[in-house]
Amino acid sequence: MADPSKWDHAAAEYNDAVGRSSRLGAARLIAMAEELYSPLSAPNARAIDLGAGTGSVTHQLAAAYPELPILATDISPGMLKQLMANATMPTNITTQIVDMAAPIGGAATEGSFSHVFSTMALQILPEPAGEGTLDQWAKLLAPDGIVAIGLWDFDENCGPHVLWEEAAKAVDPSYVNPPLLPARHWTGRAQLEAGLKSVGFRDVRSEVLHMGFNVGKEGFLQFFWESGNPMPLDRQAGFKGDLGKVKVEMERLLDEVYCGGTKIPLSAALAVARRPKVD
Ligand SMILES: C[S@@+](CC[C@H](N)C(=O)[O-])C[C@H]1O[C@@H](n2cnc3c(N)ncnc32)[C@H](O)[C@@H]1O
């Protein structure tokens, strides 16, 4: 999942399906950051978006806060190219290739951001608290700066995962759908909140937001079979049966169970917090 070329291939199609859900999560995350204070409209505010992808957070920040300098970063050049292609107005967005596991360097200088944002990316890394990733993110922040993180909530109600599993098992009843993430990767709110607290972040607030993945039948089929997103590619690669039959079964489920793809459950875990106190 952390291989940049995998995400390069997903860039062009990302906004059509996955981006729709992540934008809803990003909108609520920005509101939560504002509730924590200080405001993104402050004269000294500066934001970095880690694992920015095609810009779910960045573009909403740019639209709401035209004066806010935003550094949009990602490990995938293809994603950042798409992010800039999606920009609809002259903005204060700059981009930089950054590995979010070790983000400090170039324009991402220590202590220089009032806000560190990241949506649907941190869970690509193992143990973000225990292996020092969140310590690095804290270092990017000015004193009292705010971190705002969104994750996919991969609970048992994760619609795309369940839909695939139901279709695959109808074709091969012995199929076991592997977890979406390996052990030691975060899958939801409890780990996010506990992880932030364990490395000393203060004023931690978290919630689960149900966004749905309601992209319609054609939208879902496009996402699953043609978008190049690493999630469906991984599922398909691990299935030994007839994928053509799985697709037919998926179409039936979308029609009969998921209301033509307009009721596919998907949630995000969202958290905001303030930088740990520096001695
Ligand atoms: C699911 S997408 C989320 C994109 C966007 N933030 C959103 O909410 O729609 C995950 C992103 O993380 C990026 N990514 C993967 N590994 C990374 C790493 N080590 N450092 C920075 N970005 C990474 C991918 O290229 C991809 O753009």
Question: What is the gist of this entry?
Answer:
The chain has 279 residues and is an alpha/beta fold. It has 10 helices and 7 strands.
Describe the protein's topology.
Blueprint lengths: L3 H11 L3 H19 L10 E3 L6 H9 L5 E5 L2 H10 L6 E5 L15 E7 L13 H8 E13 L5 H13 L17 H10 L3 E9 L5 H11 L3 H8 L5 H14 L10 E8 L5
Helix pairs in contact: 1-4, 2-3, 6-10, 8-10
Bound molecules: S-adenosylmethionine.
What does this structure look like?
- The protein has 279 residues and is an alpha/beta fold.
- The protein has one domain: Vaccinia Virus protein VP39 (Rossmann fold), CATH 3.40.50.150.
- The protein is built from ten helices and seven strands.
- The chain has helices at 4-14, 18-36, 56-64, 77-86, 133-140, 159-171, 189-198, 216-226, 230-237, 243-256, and strands spanning 47-49, 70-74, 93-97, 113-119, 141-153, 202-210, 267-274.
- A seven-stranded mixed sheet has the order 3-2-1-4-5-7-6, with helices on both faces.
- The longest helix has 19 residues, at 18-36.
- The protein is globular and about 60 Å long.
- The relative contact order is 0.18.
- The model has no long low-confidence stretch (mean pLDDT 94).
- It binds S-adenosylmethionine (SAM).
- Residues 2, 7, 19, 22, 26, 51-53, 56, 74-76, 79, 98-101, 119-121, 124 line the site of S-adenosylmethionine.
- Keywords: Methyltransferase, Transferase.
- Pfam families: Methyltransf_25.
- Residues 48-145 form the Methyltransferase domain.
